[in-house]
Write a structure and sequence with these properties.
This protein is of the alpha+beta class. Helices cover about 35% and strands about 25% of the residues. The strands form six sheets. Strands 13, 14, 17, 18, 19, 20 and 21 form a seven-stranded antiparallel β-sheet that branches. Strand 9 and strand 10 form a beta hairpin. It starts with 5 loop residues before the first helix and ends in a 9-residue tail after the last helix.
Length: about 700
């Protein structure tokens, strides 16, 4: 077999690129990739993907570029091939379409009219010239473009006469060109406004991206004349910034702007429910060339454009608020004098004394200050009925973080502003950290005010809240007093004796002593003391359950657990009375519902606090808020191409779907007897529909008289 010539290979390659099958295949791959990019969150931290998919699949997905689909090389190559394929298709078919638009095909043979589906013939009672005028006038009045051709007799099969050719719906073929051209424009605009320009510039200039927390070098700065980018600009209140950052696959690059942006004031407006309804930034743009100033207000859906760069209100963050945190020791001790810890949101970590953190070297990192927290408490489960308590290891407030729908619509929700909150991390010397979210004021759940102390181990988890009841002074001191007494051996022993004296007859000292011993043991187990060195006792209600499972037969465990819970409640009540007496506080009045709820929630909170990972809680004391705006700075030269492509796509689709190209041929021939004209007509359409049948019937009735011979 001989090798095919090179010209034939190139011709076959061009045929493949310009074929519809190849374009449809590319569109299918693009649709699949876009679906993946929509379902899978793009540009997230790598650690989040590892937690979701595991190390192996994270590496596989990362190698395939699924975490940044729209900027990956294979996706851009597919777009480029689609542009080439569609452009070749347009270049190949447009000349044919334009030629077809200019021709009426009046040279069609008379005999070929009999081959059409829609055809008719008849006789007009007028001469040939008058019949020609009649046909042309009717067709033109119905919106047809008409052209006639007078023929002399060429043979017996091709007699003399007039062929009237008409056409209508030529926009159908123009719709084909518009639809294909729109694909090219949208793809080219997407390539221009995507990450292609930034990636090419980074590769050409050998730029080195930097990560969060690192200082960018000169090798991480894009060109000021960069024609296309989408960057994030962070500007705190009262400050000026002209350096935006562009997120790339391996970090970030600095994109200098042709102006500086100064944030005068950040504005937030709220609905009556407390949900925010408007974010706006009062800015001043300082031109770096002519030193001019331009004031503007940027808010959602109302951007500001200057020198080809558009600023959108993307989000807002803390701009470095100053906060003072009060350390609260869950069990005695604490930071010396409980001095306030002063820090800046987003600032450097604050070292904490090891003796206050259980001997661990930890650093306090203040993450976020939220002055207003509007939450839906209608579905909150404060008693933990669905989750078995308020254990911070496995329970979450269902009502919190469920803020679906518009803030202007109350619906069935109970939207409540539960006050400011502070989010911080405690990081140990090994780099491991727990994140905490504590609310400044107590939240009323089920008519019981509680302090919400949230904790989570990673960003992918939801916060789990320890609910500490507020005392009569709306502080945590009443509960802390009870918890500190629980860990005092002398107070536990005294509380056990008081409980026994109040529960056993006075004339049976042996029974009192047995009851005191049992109550003391229950308090010790609840406090987390270990009786069996081989078994780990977690303390709290979990510890009591472990103890019952180890020492009580299964048949008697239910009765024993009820007895131990009654003994625990009585002993803790006695412990509370002793602690309040020594603190010169009035005793609780259990006849009141408030004190009953306080005692019940206190026992649950003391049990759940056994799982709290650190011995100190930092609560928000005072703060000086400072906001910052995050703008999206975009330069998108391909935007107009995309808009034009969308318009052309709409026009092209409507033209191809709703415009039918039709052609009509009417042959007029003088009758042998004279004074009459024989007529033969046919209609051709790109789609055979009922509308086509009806249109042909109207034409036939208009062109043929009542004495017609009827359709063929």
């Amino acid at each position: 077999m001989s090798r095919p010539p090179a010209r034939a290979v190139w011709r076959d390659l061009l045929d493949l690129l310009a074929s519809m099958r190849f374009a449809i295949t590319l569109l299918t791959v693009i649709c699949i990739a876009s679906t993946i990019g929509t379902i899978l969150k793009q540009g997230e931290p790598l650690v989040g993907y590892v937690d979701t998919f595991g190390p192996f699949w994270t590496e596989v997905f990362g190698a395939l570029g699924l975490f940044r689909v729209y900027s990956s090389g294979w996706f851009l190559v597919i777009l480029a091939f689609l542009v080439v394929s569609t452009s070749l298709c347009i270049a190949r078919n447009t000349p044919k379409i334009l030629v077809d638009l200019r021709t009426f095909k009046e040279h069609v043979r008379v005999r070929s009219l009999d081959a059409f589906h829609h055809k008719a013939q008849g006789e007009l009672p007028v001469g040939l010239e008058q019949a020609q005028g009649h046909v042309q006038q009717w067709l033109q009045s119905l919106g047809w473009q008409v052209k006639s051709q007078t023929r002399s007799q060429a043979s017996e099969k091709e007699p003399a006469g007039v062929m009237v050719a008409a056409r209508r719906g030529s926009a159908n073929k123009l719709g084909y060109i518009a639809a294909h051209l729109s694909i090219v424009l949208v793809c080219v605009g997407g390539l221009l406004d995507g990450d292609l320009v930034v990636n090419v510039q980074a590769w050409w200039s050998q730029l080195q991206p930097f990560r969060t927390g690192e200082n960018p070098s000169d090798k991480a700065v894009l060109s000021l004349s960069n024609p296309a980018y989408r960057a994030q600009l962070y500007v705190p209140e009262g400050q000026t910034n002209g350096q935006a950052v562009v997120n790339v696959e391996k970090g970030m690059l600095v994109q200098p702007l042709p102006f500086d942006v100064q944030l005068k004031k950040f504005i937030v407006e709220y609905y009556e429910t407390g949900m925010p309804k408007r974010f706006a930034s009062e800015i001043v743009v300082h031109d770096l060339q002519d030193k001019s100033r331009h004031e503007a207000v940027v808010e959602v859906n109302k951007p500001f454009t200057y020198k080809g760069v558009t600023l959108f209100q993307s989000s807002f963050q803390d701009g470095g608020s100053e906060v003072k945190l009060k350390p609260v020791a869950l069990v005695g001790g604490g930071i010396e004098g409980e001095a306030l810890v002063t820090g800046t949101v987003g600032g450097r970590g604050i070292p904490l004394p090891a003796q206050a953190m259980g001997g661990l070297t930890m650093t306090l990192e203040i993450g976020e200050l939220r002055v207003i927290n509007v939450e839906d408490l209608s579905r909150a489960d404060p008693q933990g009925a669905k989750a078995g308590g308020t254990d911070p290891r496995g329970v979450n407030l269902e009502g919190l973080s469920q803020q679906l729908g518009s803030g202007a619509q109350k619906g069935g929700k109970k939207l409540t502003n539960i006050g400011p909150s502070i989010t911080y991390k405690l990081r140990d010397s090994a780099g491991q950290a727990h994140e905490f979210q504590n609310y400044m004021v107590p939240v009323r759940l089920n008519d019981q005010p509680v302090f919400l102390l949230g904790v989570r181990n990673s960003l992918q988890e939801g916060f789990r809240f320890l609910r500490v009841p507020a005392d009569e002074n709306m502080t945590m001191q009443g509960w802390l007093l009870m918890r500190n007494a629980l860990f005092d051996p002398a107070l536990r022993a005294e509380a056990s004796q008081r409980f026994a004296r109040g529960s056993a007859p006075t004339d049976k000292p042996e029974l009192q002593q047995q009851l005191a011993t049992s109550a003391l043991r229950v308090l010790d187990i609840f406090a987390g003391l270990q009786y069996d060195p081989k078994q780990r006792n977690e303390g709290g209600l979990v510890g009591l359950g472990q103890f019952i499972e180890r020492v009580v037969p299964p048949a008697e465990q239910e009765r024993a657990s009820g007895t131990m819970i009654q003994m625990l409640n009585g002993a803790i009540l006695a412990l509370t009375e002793i602690a309040r007496e020594r603190a010169d506080l009035p005793p609780l009045n259990l006849a009141e519902t408030r004190d009953q709820n306080f005692m019940q929630q206190s026992v649950l909170a003391m049990s759940d606090a056994m799982a709290y990972p650190v011995p100190v809680v930092f609560t928000l004391d005072t703060f000086e808020q400072k906001q910052a705006s995050v703008f999206q700075a975009t330069r998108t030269p391909g935007r107009n191409l995309v808009y034009l492509g969308c318009v052309l796509l709409i026009i092209g689709v409507f033209a191809m779907l709703y415009v039918r190209e039709r052609r009509v041929w009417v042959w007029l021939q003088a009758a042998p007897e004279g004074g009459h004209t024989q007529l033969k007509m046919a209609l051709s359409s790109t789609r055979q529909t009922l509308d086509t049948d009806n249109e042909f019937d109207r034409l036939r009735q208009a062109l043929l008289p009542a004495t017609e011979k009827g359709p063929a």
